[in-house]
Amino acid sequence: MIALRQQDVGVAVLPVKHPAIDVQRLADYRAVCVVAEGSPLAGQRSIRLESLESEALISATTGTQIHLMTEHAFRQCGIRPRIRVDARTQEAACYMVAQEKGVAILSEPLPAHIRDYPGTVIKPISPALPVSLGILTSNLRAPSRRVREFVNAVRAIGARA
């Protein structure tokens, strides 16, 4: 959409490579594992990918950066994830986790309503799975004053998160 100039600015999980898009790194976060409160995994301090080998995975939508990153991390561990379903939203993933349909790997930062989703527990993944966010703008034209102001505001928020 940005490359086609249908949108002025976007925020995305990196990497993003397109000749018509400028990318500014916003912040670095990590992926986390969401498990059901009643799961034995909920009692662990952190979750190793190897411990998810027998778990059903509620995955991010196929083709998204978080999905690709998760698949790559599992491959690096020699594990083939048991993907049960692709969830289009974090809310949908948490709902399915709370219903004990599987575990989900999500990218921080998580909004409060996801962080406190009833029936779920969020655990760090060990070793950490880094996730970088970037601000995207078109390089086909100079950004307007309002776009620059918006980008600066988003960068300020990202610096505090």
Our measurement of the CA-to-CA distance between the termini, rounded to an integer number of angstroms, reads: 27 Å
Can you tell me the CATH architecture? 3-Layer(aba) Sandwich
Number of strands: 7
Q: Report the C-alpha radius of gyration, rounded.
A: 17 Å
Structural class: alpha/beta
- What is the CATH topology? D-Maltodextrin-Binding Protein, domain 2
Notes on the protein architecture:
This protein is an alpha/beta fold. The protein has a single domain (9-160), classed as D-Maltodextrin-Binding Protein, domain 2, CATH 3.40.190.290. 25% of the residues lie in helices and 32% in strands. The protein is built from four helices and seven strands, in the order βββαβαβαββα. It has helices spanning 65-76, 90-98, 112-115, 145-160; strands spanning 9-13, 21-36, 56-60, 82-87, 103-107, 120-124, 130-138. Strands 1, 2, 3, 4, 5, 6 and 7 form a seven-stranded mixed sheet that branches. Strand 3, helix 1 and strand 4 (82-87) form a beta-alpha-beta unit. The model has no long low-confidence stretch (mean pLDDT 91).
Key traits:
161 residues; alpha/beta; D-Maltodextrin-Binding Protein, domain 2; 7-stranded mixed β-sheet; 4 helices
Please sum up the structure shown.
The protein is of the alpha/beta class and 161 residues long. 25% of the residues lie in helices and 32% in strands. It is built from four helices and seven strands; from the N terminus they run βββαβαβαββα.
